[in-house]
Amino acid sequence: MSGELEGRVALITGAARGIGKACAQALLDHGAKVALLDLDHAVVDTAKGLDPSGERAIGVVADVTNPDQVGTAVAEVREKLGDVGILVNNAGFPRDTFLAKMKLEDFQRVIDVVLTGSFVCSQAVIGSMMSQKWGRIINISSRSHLGNPGQTNYSAAKAGLIGFTRALSLESGKFGITVNAVAPGFVETEAMKALDNYEVLKQRSVDKSPLGRVGQPEEIADTVAFLASPRAGYISGDTVHVTGGRYS
Q1: What is the pLDDT of residues 86-110, one digit of tens each?
Q2: Dihedral angle sign, alpha carbons of residues 200, 204, 209, 210
Q3: If pLDDT is split at 50, 70 and 90, which confidence band does 157 have?
Q4: Nearest to 59 by CA among 77, 75, 71, 72
């Protein structure tokens, strides 16, 4: 266990399970206090599982697209843990179908959660980061930003997140804030395993991967922990692909 993030407070969205939960564990392991945020009330139990005392990890329930709910959540985090210095914008989900059959609400909701949610959460915490003269914003994009059939909504949202990352890094660097993105490939999460065509998707990914396997949530979390650390202090505006070498 490293203490390089001792004294820092992290907020991770979409953290009830999967990559978000793994990020919370990794940041805890590096000494940070963590707030797990999710629309799913299960996030409270997830946080208790990581830290039964509630002194270093808490769960907060909020919709990342709702500025009032996010503002209330950030205020709770500040009261219980301190000012947020690390933000991991992880909330998001796919609603896959070909564009000819896609409903407008399925396009809009994915954009809202992935892209607008990252804007809302970043805006809610960047003021305290500016005051601290230090901050880390890490946006979870996806290899899908390169484009996937049946994912015009998800690919657009994840590509937009990379543009958001680059623009915000240019605005915030003078305040000691770095902004980066992580673009995972196929990661074996509970949500992926619940898909009806999971085995087909997994095998397709394995076949296309130079490493011949899929990724694990902890591998994404380790990258996030590095970008949050002092060791990554000169990295900003960048996108780290964690795909096992797969780009197509």
Answers
A1: 999 999 999 999 999 999 999 999 9
A2: positive
A3: very high
A4: 77
Go through 58-85 and write b for each residue having 16 or more CB atoms within 10 A of its CB, e for each that does not: bbbbbbbbebebbeebbebbeeebebbb
Structure tokens at 209: 């991967």
**Cα 103 from chain centroid?**
25
| Contact present, 143 and 246 (Cβ < 8 Å) | yes
Cβ contacts of residue 76 below 8 Å, gap of 6+?
35, 58, 60
Q: How far is CA 158 from CA 129, 196, 217, 237, in A?
A: 24, 23, 18, 15
**Known catalytic membership, residue 154:** yes
- 154, 198, 234, 247: which is the annotated catalytic residue? 154
Residue 1's pLDDT is 55
